[in-house]
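Re: How this chain folds, sequence and tokenised backbone to follow
Notation: Tokens come from a learned vocabulary of local backbone shapes, not from coordinates.
Start of record: The labelled sequence and token lines come straight after this line.
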Amino acid sequence: MRAVWLVLVGLLLTACGAGQGQPSGPAPSASTRPAPGEQACSSSVRIDGFSDALDKTQFAGRFVGNLSSLAQQADGNIAALSDRSLLFTLDGRTHRPIAVVPLADEHGQRLDSEGLTIERDGTFLVSSEIEPSVRRYSRDGHLLGRVPVPDNLRVAPAGRARDNLTFEGLTEAPDGRTLTASMEAALSGDQGDLVRLQTWSRAGDGAFTPAAQYGYRVDPGLGVSEINALGDGRLLVLERGFLPGFGNTVRLYLADPRQADDVSAVVDLTGAPPARLVNRTLLADLGRCPDLGAPAKAAQANSLLDNIEGMTITGRDPMGALQLLLVSDDNQSGSQTTRLYSLTVTPR
């Protein structure tokens, strides 16, 4: 997002049209890696390294930063979405920028682009917080269409969502049949710690149609910044918040909506029966990861942390654990850092 999005006192706790070019600054392959036995963030998560080499760099005349979402492409490269309507491609091995395309809406205006997922045919689905919306783009950045959004999720007065707190996360199931977007914060009238996950089902013509909404309870003062679908119906959910003088809180959850109730018709979501919420399990509070000697430009309880917004699964290790790549959004601010994080996660 363009600004640090939530400040709550109760918390203590990314052309073909733009062209190719060479990035300024060092290649983001340099990272700091801990010694074995010093990696654990929890029993389920370890930190494998970080890199600040993208921070405050440029590629093809574009600022490389404001990165809000990541998605791995079929060729192994990484799509990195900037909330300033730019879609970068990072080399899957070095994480150097190798391409960038601009994105725009139907009127040629830029998006507040926050969520990203890649279809099996290589097209991109991108969510914007403005309306909110989900649009489909070709690999060269041409707008191909939109996904319908339920009225209650639109920004007031059209709906009940609050400005700049809508579709922050976007993910598609590996089988391509289900699309899920996560609201960053609660709708007006809903309980403040309950956010909605909107799903779509793929119809026979290949288009997505709105399906179930689920209620998801966030930790106090936090909001959902990213989601990734696993192959079994579960989701990895990244929750994030900020408190001045304390810094960022970032937690990784495993969420299971399979037994949750559809709350599409529930006007005021309170979490009381009969609505069953999404079941979730804490995998790690990333503030408990070793800091690896990472520098911080502003106050952080753990100097490793920053405004982490993007996450993608890049593979599995020899033992079957998930390999994750995370990125922080620096808001193009001198007090924040564009940082890549490598994690290994074993969902319970």
The mean pLDDT is 90. The two ends are 31 Å apart (CA to CA).
